[in-house]
Design a protein that fits this description.
The chain has about 350 residues and is of the alpha/beta class. The protein has 13 helices and eleven strands. Strands 3-2-4-8 form a four-stranded mixed beta sheet. Strands 5-11-10 form a three-stranded mixed beta sheet. α11 links the parallel β10 and β11.
């Protein structure tokens, strides 16, 4: 009997002794699997964003713009193409042909390349287009920071940048530049006096993935800034008006939540949620709710969409990728393997840029 009591006391003492150890070690085992964004990077970005916001006061920054004020002596509004990449720009020859079809007064190019990657630009097509960049990591808020960095740099560089098109190194154009420009800014050609331009960004609700994505950083962590019923998902790639680009740069409230590291990496895709949620909460009527970048998710693997291979590349594929159930054709598509460049270039003039 005495031995039994001694065993019970030893067990109780062991449990009590182990509690502080568990309390001390648990955060190490349960800590997020990504590192937070470094404070110096945050401060650098904040300075950049504030400069971009300040510079916009004297430029056409609203998505509502009076084209009647634009005469033959006025400069032309531009599209800023924002390339977000961590690998070689293998499709730069195709994009070069796309841009060379028109005057540079209609567009600008900016590239955010992960500094940890040693990138090449075949033919030096995008020489001088690289912006000061920082480390990016999948399933982390660094991808949001990179996109915001691109927008801020574009706003500072040229006040006439009006649309901001975010694309990746695996994206290709599906139409000629002339077609893309008229789709986004074509109202100027028709002489409408007042035109409200919208952002083309996918904004989805009631999706089956939302519950797990919402708690990826922990239960109730997103509250109160982001209630679950206002949490949205959408494509990582979009075309924003300058008004909405500035809205993104000015945001601090939602960013405090979305920049937090995740505990559940398999459900952590902040770049697919931050932009749709922010714009849905602040200006849902100013967005089309759909993207202009076609992606095939029918056989996705580990969060990656279908990757097209050379045997799939054909005129019929291009025609199919253009088709949309919305008001506009798809203008871009992803994801293509590197060895698709040759078949794409072979039909660039006869199919892709022949609208």
């Amino acid at each position: 009997m005495i031995r039994m009591l001694q065993s019970q006391y030893i067990l109780i003492f062991s449990l009590l002794f182990s509690l502080p150890i568990v309390f001390f070690l648990a955060p190490r085992f349960l800590s997020p699997r990504q590192l937070p964004i470094p404070l110096p990077d945050e401060l650098d970005d904040l300075s950049l964003f504030n400069r971009a916001i300040s510079s916009s006061f004297s430029s056409p920054s609203s998505s509502t713009f009076s084209f009647s004020r634009l005469g033959s002596h006025n400069p032309t509004l531009k599209i800023a193409f924002l390339f977000l990449t961590n690998s070689d720009l293998f499709f730069s020859p195709l994009w070069n042909r796309f841009f060379n079809s028109t005057s540079s007064k209609f567009y600008n190019i900016y590239i955010h390349a992960d500094p940890d990657s040693h990138l090449s630009d075949p033919g030096g097509v995008f020489k001088g287009r690289f912006i000061p960049s920082k480390h990016t990591e999948r399933s982390s808020a660094t991808l949001i920071s990179a996109a915001k960095r691109l927008m801020a740099t574009a706003i500072l560089d040229d006040p006439l940048n009006f649309y901001f098109a975010l694309v990746s190194q695996s994206c290709i154009p599906l139409h000629s530049f002339d077609f893309v420009y008229k789709t986004l800014l074509g109202s100027n050609a028709f002489g409408f006096r007042h035109v409200r331009h919208k952002s083309f960004i996918e904004i989805l609700e009631n999706e089956s993935i939302l519950p797990s994505r919402y708690v990826a950083r922990g239960k109730n962590v997103m509250m109160p800034e982001v209630p679950y019923d206002e949490f949205r998902v959408g494509s990582q790639f979009f075309v924003l008006t300058k008004k909405h680009a500035l809205m993104v740069l000015k945001d601090r409230r939602l960013w405090r939540k979305f920049r937090l590291p995740c505990f559940k990496i398999e459900a952590c895709y902040p770049e697919e949620h931050y932009f749709p949620t922010l714009l849905s909460m602040n200006d849902p009527n100013g967005c089309t709710q759909y993207t202009l970048t076609r992606v095939n998710w029918t056989d996705s693997v580990n969060g990656h969409p279908h990757m097209y291979r050379p045997p799939e590349v054909s005129p019929e594929l291009i025609y199919t990728l253009r088709q949309s159930n919305f008001s506009h054709d798809y203008l871009f598509a992803r994801k293509f393997s590197v060895d698709c460049l040759k078949p794409l270039m072979d039909m660039a003039d006869s199919v892709i840029f022949n609208d």
